[in-house]
Amino acid sequence: MRALLFSCQHYDQESFARAANDSALDLHYQPARLTLDTAALAHGFDAVCAFINDELDAQVLECLASGGTRLIALRSAGYNHVDLAAAQRLGLTVVRVPAYSPHAVAEHAVALILALNRRLHRAYNRTREGDFTLHGLTGFDLHGKTVGVVGTGQIGAAFARIMAGFGCQLLAYDPHPNPELLALGARYLELPQLLREARIISLHCPLTEHTRHLINARSLASLQPGAMLINTGRGALVDTPALIDALKSGQLGYLGLDVYEEEAQLFFEDRSDQPLQDDVLARLLTFPNVIVTAHQAFLTREALDAIATTTLDNITRWAAGNPQNLVIK
Fold first, then answer.
1. 161 catalytic residue (yes or no)
2. Consecutive H or E run containing 312
3. Local structure of 186: helix, strand or coil
4. D-isomer specific 2-hydroxyacid dehydrogenase catalytic domain: from which residue to which, for each copy (predicted)?
5. Which of 263, 269, 301, 317 is flagged as catalytic?
6. Which of 43, 40, 44, 54 is nearest to 12 (CA)?
7. For the chain, what is the domain count?
8. How far is CA 231 from CA 107, 205, 258, 270, 296, in A?
9. Average pLDDT in the 142-154 region?
10. Do 83 and 58 touch, CB atoms closer than 8 A?
11. Same domain, 154 and 230
């Protein structure tokens, strides 16, 4: 059973090598992103293992299928980047990793909140330059503040537990209320009301046709002036140009992003010796109250090991005729 991993970084190769151990799977690692131009590299491979910024549209899937690929094994929970109708038409099975470490993403969201609130990024740069003044570094107590959790699945619930530990008041929005959040004292509200009442909003919902640009110019206008927005979900949950306008006006007081709608051409690569070609991202990075990390929220040893173990188990079970974690069969 031959499998090719696209978008494979050194840490992926290390975690998969640990998980594979004595596995009979024949794993191959490809650092290139899966696109129409690179899909031919998978010819002769039974399974293709794809990550979040790999392209799995109809043309790419047709190329994979014509080369003998029969299984798309996603190294992610989300599958919004897969043309599921095309996969079904081509007879491709698609499996995913429904959960790896919700703590990893939730904890990164909290790290962004703390860094933005206490201006740790600015303080770090100042002290390295010998500036030990405190002007402009005033934060606020998290205790007692109202935090809105948008999307209350495993990651949202893990985030809510942490914020409850800080003594925050919890608001939640999700079509399917989670009993765990109710037990924490969270109030479920419709999204417009949550946005009006919360001082901090953290996005943990999947990207679907209904959640694309969930945060836009209209919803940003309803925020409390100076509110904080955190997105560790998917970049397209927010309309990025609208964020810039809200930051310029002061309506949005803090912004923490681990994802970006146009990240596929940027993230996971060292581009430090090149001019940044994305004008929207370049503008975002000029604001002192913005922190952008390059989709690293998932990046813990525990999460990487869980992703590798589940992915390999998905491939092995599919090969044995007992598939699990199916998106489509």
1. no
2. helix 301-319
3. coil
4. 9-327
5. 263
6. 54
7. 2
8. 12, 10, 6, 22, 12
9. 97
10. yes
11. yes
